[in-house]
Protein backbone atom coordinates (compact mmCIF):
# COMPACT_ATOMS: atom_id res chain seq x y z
CA UNK A 1 0.00 0.00 0.00
CA UNK A 2 1.27 3.43 -0.93
CA UNK A 3 1.40 5.49 2.24
CA UNK A 4 0.47 8.57 0.22
CA UNK A 5 -2.91 7.02 -0.55
CA UNK A 6 -3.45 5.56 2.93
CA UNK A 7 -6.76 6.68 4.39
CA UNK A 8 -6.82 6.23 8.17
CA UNK A 9 -10.38 7.49 8.42
CA UNK A 10 -11.65 4.36 6.68
CA UNK A 11 -9.89 2.19 9.28
CA UNK A 12 -11.46 4.19 12.08
CA UNK A 13 -14.89 3.86 10.47
CA UNK A 14 -14.51 0.08 10.24
CA UNK A 15 -13.42 -0.09 13.87
CA UNK A 16 -16.37 2.07 14.94
CA UNK A 17 -18.81 -0.14 13.04
CA UNK A 18 -17.35 -3.17 14.83
CA UNK A 19 -17.61 -1.43 18.22
CA UNK A 20 -13.83 -1.54 18.68
CA UNK A 21 -12.85 2.11 18.21
CA UNK A 22 -12.31 3.01 21.89
CA UNK A 23 -10.25 -0.14 22.50
CA UNK A 24 -8.20 0.58 19.37
CA UNK A 25 -7.44 4.13 20.49
CA UNK A 26 -6.35 2.79 23.88
CA UNK A 27 -4.10 0.24 22.13
CA UNK A 28 -2.53 2.97 19.98
CA UNK A 29 -1.97 5.19 23.03
CA UNK A 30 -0.29 2.25 24.81
CA UNK A 31 1.77 1.31 21.72
CA UNK A 32 0.21 -2.16 21.97
CA UNK A 33 0.75 -3.45 18.42
CA UNK A 34 -0.65 -6.91 19.17
CA UNK A 35 -3.91 -5.53 20.56
CA UNK A 36 -4.23 -3.06 17.68
CA UNK A 37 -3.68 -5.89 15.16
CA UNK A 38 -6.28 -8.06 16.87
CA UNK A 39 -8.87 -5.29 16.93
CA UNK A 40 -8.35 -4.45 13.26
CA UNK A 41 -8.72 -8.12 12.33
CA UNK A 42 -12.00 -8.27 14.27
CA UNK A 43 -13.15 -5.19 12.36
CA UNK A 44 -12.28 -6.97 9.09
CA UNK A 45 -9.59 -4.48 8.06
CA UNK A 46 -7.57 -5.96 5.19
CA UNK A 47 -4.08 -7.32 5.87
CA UNK A 48 -2.26 -4.71 3.80
CA UNK A 49 -3.93 -1.87 5.69
CA UNK A 50 -3.22 -3.54 9.03
CA UNK A 51 0.46 -3.76 8.09
CA UNK A 52 0.51 -0.06 7.17
CA UNK A 53 -1.15 0.98 10.43
CA UNK A 54 1.23 -1.14 12.50
CA UNK A 55 4.24 0.27 10.63
CA UNK A 56 3.04 3.79 11.34
CA UNK A 57 2.54 2.92 15.01
CA UNK A 58 6.04 1.42 15.26
CA UNK A 59 7.79 4.37 13.57
CA UNK A 60 8.83 6.72 16.39
CA UNK A 61 9.59 9.53 13.92
CA UNK A 62 6.51 9.08 11.76
CA UNK A 63 3.38 11.13 11.74
CA UNK A 64 0.21 9.36 12.87
Question: From the alpha-carbon coordinates, what is the Rg to the nearest angstrom?
Answer: 11 Å
Shape: globular
Number of domains: 1
- The total count of helices amounts to 4
The assigned structural class equals mainly alpha
Largest sheet: none
| N-to-C span | 16 Å
Residue share in β-strands: under 5%
As residue ranges, the low-confidence spans are none
Order of helices and strands: HHHH
Mean pLDDT: 88
- What percent of the residues sit in helical stretches (DSSP H or I)? 55-70%
Q: How many strand units?
A: 0
Describe this structure in words.
The protein is an all-alpha fold. The chain has one domain (3-58). 64% of the residues lie in helices and 0% in strands. The chain is built from four helices and no strands. The chain has helices at 8-17, 21-29, 33-42, 47-58. The longest helix is centred in the last third of the chain and has 12 residues, at 47-58. It is globular.
Amino acid sequence: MDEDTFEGTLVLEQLAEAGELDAFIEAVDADDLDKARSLMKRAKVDAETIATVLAKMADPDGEH
